[in-house]
Amino acid sequence: MSNTSFWKSAYQLFKPEEPLTTPEDLKVFYVQRENSPVDKLVSLLEMEDDPAKFLLAGHRGGGKTTELRRLEQKLADTYTVVWIDTQTSLDRYNIGYAEVVVLIGLQIAQAIESNWLFKKDKLLDALLDSLKSVIYEDKGSQNEGLGVPEFIEKAGIILKRGLTREVTKTLNVRPVLSQIITRVNNIIEAAEKEQKQKLLIVVDGLDRHDQVTALEMFSSPLLIELNCHIIYAIPISLRYSPSFRQPMEAFQKCLDLNNPPVFESDANLCPTSNPDQKGREILINVINKRLDTLGDSHKGLFNPDALELICEKSGGVMRDLVRLARTACEIGLRNKLSFVDLATAQDAVREVRREYNLSDYHYPELDLIHRTGKLTTKTHSLPKKGDFIICDELLQNKLVLGYYNSMQESWFDINPILIEDLERWQVANNNT
């Protein structure tokens, strides 16, 4: 096998932007972590007769999509699951609760058209009329005579561009959104009666939005008015923001997807420098499970000390773990190596570290969190951003990571890939 083929086959196993979504991938690559929210959600849904609304919080790249796909598979025999991916269907820079409500309506309409067999014409027509009144307002489009598939396709393209700027200028959109929800609820009621199976909607991708957008979106009561079980993925910064405490009470429960810790906390939930062996073992298994599919030719591709460093500097975030492994493979090919040694892993860490940006006002908060394990509510102001809580920004940008101890108590620490930056700041400020 050529050097290029050798490294390429390993490199292709580590795709940081691709969660595990297929049954085959989950079977081959998935590694069970402690206290996965999936089992909790399965139990909670079994206990709920009335429509329940849940939130799933975690860091970007922490594995929420993978866990939700596992949930979808576990419930496939007992629920009709409608998966909604806002990341691919909506513009991340022009999104609000209006777009989310309309997208849910569109996906329900598509599910009816392709899967559900009950007498649907009148209910579907009523929903489509409501959707058209929002989507085609002020568009100048000719839409008469479009079939349902053509309408859904065209509406999806318009929705991708965003409704907020164009529609809300000319239309009081809230009553129409309420009408959409009412008509979706009529369909849900009929579908569940006909299918003899409850409906579960999974809304993925909303965790990728900034704090202000996410807070406004989830503060809207419209997102909890659907008469079915629904799960929304949310940013971890929103989960811990003081501004979200009251809106969060409208949901039955907010579950957390924990990062496997790479260091231990002490009895007071303060970070330590002691490696968390159980957490690191999970991360090592994630890498080894992928390499095992390549057989003996790639056994021991990562030296133990290189693997240890990559796991540590990932901070337990799955996407970052995979990115570090991928980068190490690319460096291995570039340097014509036959395995990843510690020096190669260090080079990979330096390359990935460049993706993080620290500002002067971050360091005092990072220092305090690293010493106490706790978030603060200290604010900062920027000309284009106004006042904001610094820790919200630190969490959103993965400059700070959240963990749980064995008692399910939360604690926080600086992302390990940034610890050298903090240590340099501490020396410069005589704050060691």
Automatic annotation (TrEMBL):
Residues 45-218 form the KAP NTPase domain. SUPFAM superfamilies: P-loop containing nucleoside triphosphate hydrolases. The lineage of its organism: Bacteria, Bacillati, Cyanobacteriota, Cyanophyceae, Nostocales. This is KAP NTPase domain-containing protein. InterPro entries: KAP_P-loop, P-loop_NTPase. It holds the Pfam family KAP_NTPase. It comes from the Bacteria.
